[in-house]
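Thread: YhjD, structure

OP (GT): Posting the sequence first so everyone is looking at the same thing. Length is 116 residues per the record. Can we get the structure tokens written out before standup tomorrow? I want them in the notebook alongside the other entries.
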Amino acid sequence: MTRITEEDRFILEQSLFLPMVLTIFNRDLSVIQNSPFKLKDPYIHLIEEAMKRVQKDLYVVKQKMRERKMKAVEVERDEAFTLFSFIYKGYEEKHNYFNPRIRNEVLSMMEKYLFG
């Protein structure tokens, strides 16, 4: 049984998924900058604004984690699952996430940041 509240679990998951969103936006930004688009600026501006919002939210998440003495670390990854260790109020819990679930969550977060 988990000791982590639903709100704190959401914060921990955000601390895992937001950096993934940033990584994808960075890769996409470099692809757009090196692409043969005639007008790149609107795409670049859209992604940069989304990245600023992600960074701001990540900053808030990390502050909350520091205040609540929480930490999340990736322990192991294979083709199907990723294992994370959540340290919460002095206790450690291991949580296994199905990789397609992570991908879907990151995708929905990207859409949220790009389109509101």
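GT: Both are above now. Quick notes for whoever picks this up: The radius of gyration is 16 Å. Helices lie at 6-33, 41-67, 99-115.
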